[in-house]
Amino acid sequence: MTPHPILDIGEQLGLRKDELIPYGQYKAKVSLDVLARLADRPRGRYVLVTAINPTPLGEGKTTTAVGLVMGLCRLGQRAVVNLRQPSLGPVFGLKGGGAGGGRACIVPMEEMNLHLTGDSHAVQSAHNLLSAFVDNHLFHGNTLELDPGQITWPRAVSVSDRSLRHVRVIGKNGEEREARFVLTEASEVMAILALATSLADLRARLGRIVVGVARDGRPVTADDLHCAGAMAALLKNALCPNLLQTVEGTPALVHAGPFGNIAHGNSSVLADLLALRCAGYVVTESGFASELGAEKFFNIKCRVSGLTPDAAVIVVTLRALKFYGGGGEVKSGQPLPAGLTGPNRDALVRGFANLEQHLANVQAHGVPSVVAVNAFDQDSDDELRWVCEQAEKSGATSAVVTTHFRDGGKGSETLAQAVMTACRKPNRFTQLYDVAWPIKQKIDTIATRMYGASGVSYGAQAEQDIERATRWGFHRLPICMAKTPLSLSHDPALKGRPSGFTVPITELRVLAGAGFLTAVCSGIELLPGLPKHPSGEHIDLDPETGEIVGLS
Asked: Is residue 526 part of a domain?
């Protein structure tokens, strides 16, 4: 498919040519001036796409979001999909690209997966500029009395390099201190980019970043170091959402890329605010499953934006349910076992419990839910019907089969109709907790309600961190949980719908600029490593055509 000129895609959303900043023929940034021009226009319907817990197979959450929007457009609706930009870490690591697949993807796919318009590079540059300012302040006398042993601000890198998780920095007169790197998409600056509502808000949030602790116990910020202004200058253009398109020529906004397991996992507030003034339906996607990305969407992103979601879609596959029901293991380079691909009602019934928890998670926030069963050619019609019937018995507004990967928008028309119906249902949206609650009460509520845990334990470092955050006045911030996406629990080995487990919190990080506290579960790394055979091994450049190959 040859993409349409990006100015034509903008016209579908009612955007003027002077409100688009083209980056070549097929992508552009959208000026924030659009928000003022369309301020009086009614907002469209707001739909979240989430999923059950991921497996090595993938459930097709991104393809479903893309397919749904194409289906809505085929039904005569003005619709746009809002996605995060993929991280170079997974692109060259374990997961590969994040632009969708089959007949439900974003184009140009290679550019979306790689540099796009340079937003991630701007985030990394701004982040590391602050790191340089911290060390420069220490070098030139340290008038703020910053304690070198309590510097909390890391450095950032875009690729998965486990050797940078723990490093030593050599300062003035040869003094050394421990430091670390985080993945750019897990950085506080990326979180700020995704949550900022304006240039003024961006600048203010950057200034509130806490870089460490002074010797008298007070927090030291980016504003204290006089660095926030320069960071804002680096991020000025990055704050504008990026306009692309689907393979069927419908609009797509791609902006920001925070991870769902170690950050808040959602695309930008600004992209959603803009899209809701331009389209009748806005479909956005949160990272990983409902207990991670969706929970943070409801309790962090929606608090910032003030937006109320009209419906949520939960993506599931038969083979994923069978995986969680003990139907077989997935081994790299080996064919899938028949217990996952063929009829296996016993495993399907056992694995359905995982979907039940995710339905309960959405229901806990009062949002109508639609279960989208992403079907494959070998799937049994009888099993597909059974899942849909059981999902509706478990509280879903409706449950439908979708074939967008194979059939594009045509394969999502039934899903689109179901979502339109769900959006007209009574909406009792509510947040899971009150930010005024004590920190532990908020963490405990997430763990017990969203994960099914029996309780939470706190290590010595976490106890100290909670006391300090409270003393500094940050106890009224929402919670961003950092835990494995491979289980409802903190333990990736606990599959299905585990119970009776205790979630161990090892530390609590203050992200004052982002506006939340990150509670870190045991075993979580903020800088992933590469697998034995990373996806980057298969990516190359055709020297004759200049085309990128092997990127999916």
From this structure: no
Domain that holds residue 157: 120-234
Q: Is 183 inside any structural domain?
A: yes
Structure tokens at 134: 């911290």
CA–CA dist 122, 155 (Å, integer):
14
Closest by CA to 282, choosing from 295, 297, 262, 303, is 297
Domain total of the chain: 2
Domain end (from 180, 204, 234):
234
Q: What is the pTM of this model?
A: 0.96
Query: How far is Cα 267 from Cα 258, in angstroms, rounded to an integer?
Result: 7
Does a structural domain hold residue 420?
no
- pLDDT tens across the length of the chain (552 residues): 789 999 999 999 999 999 999 999 999 999 999 999 999 999 999 999 999 998 887 789 999 999 999 999 999 999 999 999 988 877 887 767 788 999 999 999 899 999 999 999 999 999 999 999 999 999 999 999 999 999 999 999 988 888 888 888 888 777 888 889 999 999 999 999 999 999 999 999 999 999 999 999 999 999 999 999 999 999 999 999 999 999 999 999 999 999 889 899 999 999 999 999 999 999 999 999 999 999 999 999 999 999 999 999 999 999 999 999 999 988 766 788 999 999 999 999 999 999 999 999 999 999 999 999 999 999 999 999 999 999 999 999 999 999 999 999 999 999 999 999 999 999 999 999 999 999 999 999 999 999 999 999 999 999 999 999 999 999 999 999 999 999 999 999 999 999 999 999 999 999 999 999 999 998 888 788 888 888 888 888 888 888 888 887
**Coil/strand/helix, residue 99:** coil
Provide the CATH number for the domain around residue 480. Answer: 3.10.410.10
Structural domain ending residue among the three candidates 234, 261, 281: 234
Q: With contact defined as beta carbons under 8 Å apart, do 70 and 104 qualify? A: yes
